[in-house]
C-alpha cells in the first residue's frame, strides 16, 4: 500500500498544558477511507487540525505525498481539503462566491464549470445565489463540503460530516464519499456514529485520551473482536437455566423469556447443533431464534472501557 | 506566489465594502460634510485664516487624515478579526498561502478602501472650500503611505484583539484623541508653548503637518521629519506583523 499521509510520533500539548495527542503514528493509504472513532475530547480534531496546518504540533512530524507539511506547506496543503467540525461559514456570503473563494485561496484558477458540477452534485445548484445564513443546517454542511472540494483535493478530511444530519442526508453523504473514493480521493473522517464507520470505512482507527489505540482493517477488526450471539426466544418463561444446558454458559434475560448464547464464529465447532438438541431434550418450546454479530460500537465500547 | 489567493481575498474584502456601500463610503462623506458645516462655516467665520490659509481649507488635510486613520484601522482590523471571530479563518490557515499573501490581500483591500474614501472626501471638500494642491505627488505619497501603514496597524489590532471590546479599544482611546490633538483643526503654533512640546510626542502631528504641507506649503514641523516619521511607523508595523506571523501569534495554537 502506498501511503499518502504519514504521521510520525505526533504529540500536541495545548498552551494550557493539556496533552491532546500523545505520540501518535499513523499511515494513511492512498485511496482508502479511514474512519477515526473516539469519544469527545479524544483528540480527533486536534490530529486533523495539525495535518491541515491549523494547529502547530508540539512534537513529531507529518508528511503528505512525501512532503513535510511545514517545510513544503504549499505542496501539501494544496492536496488537502478540510470539512471542519463546526459550521463555520460567512453568513452573508453567497454559496457560489464562497466556493469560488475557496478555490482561489488554494491557488487554482477559476473554473465555473467545475464549481457548477460540484454544486449540482451537492444538490445546491438552486441555492447558488442564496446567502448562507438562509440555508438549513444540512445545506450548510454541504456548502462546507463544496468549499473543501472546490480546489479538487486528493485528500479529504471530514470532521464529523454527519453530526446533526438526518438519515436521508447521511445516506447521501455516504454515497458522495464513496463516489469521491472512486475518483481516487483519500478520505479521512471522524465520527461518533459507529454504524457510519461500519458502513463506509475500509479501515478504522480508534483514538482515546490522545492515543491511537488501534488502526485496523474493518473486517479484520470485526472478526478479531466480533463475537456472535444466538438468542433463543422461548414460549414459556424460565426461572433459571436448566442444569442440562449449563455447559453452554447461557444467559437468561430478566423476564426469563430469552436465552443468549455467545460464541466465536471462527471456531471450528460452534456448539450450536448440540445446543439446539439439548434445548429440545430439556423440553423447552422455542418460539423463535436469531443470531446477531457484535457491531463496531460494542467493540469500541469494550475497548474504551477496558482502558479506563 | 499564490496570486489567486491574494486576488480572492482582496476581492472578497472589496465586495464586503461594496455590499455595505452606505456604511463604507457614504458615512465618511456625511461626517466630513458635517465637520465642514460646523468647523468650516460656523467657526471658520471667526477664525478667518491660519498661516495665511483660509480656515475652511486649512482643515481639509486634517479631516482627510482623521477619516483615513479611522477607516484604515477599522477596515483592516475588522477584516481579519471577523473571520477569527466566526471561525472561518480556518480556511485561510489551511490554504497554501504565505503570510505575505494574506497581508497583501487583507491590508491591500483595506488600504484601497481608505484611499477611495480619502479621495471622496477630498472631492466633497472641493464643494465647500477652494482647494489647491501645491505638491500633488507628495500629497499622493502621504496619502498612500498613511493608508498602507494604518491598515497594517489595523491588521495588527485585528490579530491581537480576541473580543469586540479590544477591537474598539485602541481606535477609540488612542487614535481618535491623537488625531483630534494632532492639529487637525488648528495649527500647533496656536497652543501654549508647553503644549506645543507635548504635542511633539504625538505621531499624528507629523502626519497631518506633512500632509498639510503638500497642500499649502505650511507645516508645523519640517516635511522631512514628517516623512521619516511615517516611514518609521510603517517599518515598525511591518516588523510587528512579521513577528506575529513567524510565531503564529493568535492564529495557530
Ligand atoms: N484550543 C485549545 N486549547 C486548549 N485545549 C484544547 C484546545 N482545543 C482542544 N483542546 C483539548 O484537547 C482535547 C482534544 O480535543 P479535540 O477537539 O481534538 O477532541 P475531539 O476528539 O475532536 O472531540 P469531539 O469528538 O468532541 O469533537 C480536549 O480535551 C480539548 O479540551
Ligand atoms: Mg472534534
Q: Give the termini separation of chain B.
A: 25 Å
What is the strand content of chain A? Answer: 25-35%
The name of the CATH architecture of the largest domain in chain A is 3-Layer(aba) Sandwich
**Beta-sheet strand percentage of chain B?**
under 5%
Annotation field: number of helices of chain B: 10
- Most extensive interface between two protein chains, with residue counts: A-B, 35 and 26 residues
Q: What's the Cα radius of gyration of chain B? A: 19 Å
Strand tally of chain A is 14
Described by strand count, sense and barrel closure, the largest sheet of chain A is: 6 strands, mixed
Mean pLDDT of chain A: 89
Explained architecture:
The complex is a heterodimer of chains A (308) and B (253). By secondary structure, chain A is of the alpha/beta class. Helix content of chain A is 33%, strand content 28%. Chain A has ten helices and 14 strands. In chain A, the strands form three sheets. In chain A, strands 6-7-8-3-9-10 form a six-stranded mixed beta sheet, with helices on both faces. A four-stranded antiparallel beta sheet of chain A has the order 2-1-4-5, covered by helices on one side. The longest helix of chain A is centred in the middle third of the chain and has 16 residues, at 167-182. Chain A starts with a strand and ends with a helix. Chain B has one domain. In chain B, β1 (49-50) and β2 (53-54) form a beta hairpin. The longest helix of chain B has 32 residues, at 55-86. Chain B is globular and about 60 Å long. Chains A and B meet through α2 and α3 of A and α1 and α4 of B. Magnesium ion is lined by residues 44-45, 85, 159 of chain A.
Please name the defining characteristics of this protein.
heterodimer, A: 308 residues, alpha/beta, Rossmann fold, Alpha-Beta Plaits, 2 domains, 6-stranded mixed β-sheet, 4-stranded antiparallel β-sheet, B: 253 residues, mainly alpha, two-stranded antiparallel sheet, 2 strands, globular, binds adenosine-5'-triphosphate, binds magnesium ion
